[in-house]
Amino acid sequence: MPHDLFGTTVIAAPMAGGTSTPAFVEAVHRAGGLGFLAAGYKSVAAMQADIRATRESGTRFGMNVFVPDPGQLPPSAAVLAELEDYRLQLRADARRYGVELPQLRLDDDDEWQGKIDALLADPVELVSFAFGLPGPDVVRALQQAGSAVLATVTTTDEARQAADQGVDALVVQHTSAGGHSAAFLPALGLQVGGSQPGGIPAGGTQAGGTTAELVAEVRSAVGLPLVAAGGIMDAAGLDAVLRAGAVAAQLGTAFLRTDEAGARQLHKDALADPHFTRTRLTRAFTGRQARSLENEFVRDHPEAPECYPAIHHLTAPIRAAAAAAGDAERLNLWAGTGWQKAQPGPVAGVVRGLLAGR
Fold first, then answer.
1. Looking at the predicted structure, is the pLDDT value of residue 200 above 80?
2. Whether 222 contacts 172, CB under 8 Å
3. What is the architecture, at CATH level 2, of domain 10-354?
4. pLDDT tens digits, residue range 91-132?
5. Which sequence spans correspond to the domains of the chain?
């Protein structure tokens, strides 16, 4: 039975960088799911424009916001030295496309306060956070404004901290998920570059196991509604996490190849290309651990430093030039471990398949 907070068991993940457009979120809503817009990498004005466009279509939706890491704004002297070294390593990639590497940008907090202020002034129904916790004051303020607040966690320790801040629900993300890890507690035994389906212990014990097992573990630790995320691609995967105690599943990779998804066609095509045979966890593109199809760029930069979003800005010209050149070997091809099950076609077909028999 869908939890009344969501009204459905199928949630489309907020995919920053252009995938989760208002049209995509509307398509998810029309098909019987719930979509989240992504504020990440956008200005406050662009976030507000997405909210207006989605409201005008009569769509139910949520908004996801990145929490900045004060420990990396600015980075320490040691990390700064690693960044300078990584910038030198990237020169060959830049020369490949004839682009210039930018100077290091060390102060980007993704317009955090401006986005919170905008969401308080013009509340949306659901606000989720990734990469950290917003703080109890922000949680209370958003709730008083009328928003339900979700935090994204990857371990029981993170779940307990989020619950202590008073959030309404948790998105429980397994390491099989595509794109960025939402982990925010110090990692234990970090294994950047690990191939699927390995796990990363971070602020707890998420080494291996399944998304359903992680959900069950978190359910035993906190009493909040749980949304499962990571490697869920079909009705069987959805059933597994619901049986483990989730009230819904949040899917990203399953929707990437759909007609309405705003992902680059090059990315969509790569998901169906037999040339790519596995995913890996990497910091090479953004400085934050993320799961991508393994391509040349991932293999060439296995030891990228941990500094987000400084590396995101540093590699941006290379990624843009690779996309323009149709070169998938230098593009961030975010993908969960179940990427081979991603299907083309309308969003409605994916949602129908997930909800079959319900």
1. no
2. no
3. Alpha-Beta Barrel (3.20)
4. 999 999 999 999 999 999 999 999 999 999 999 999 999 999
5. 10-354
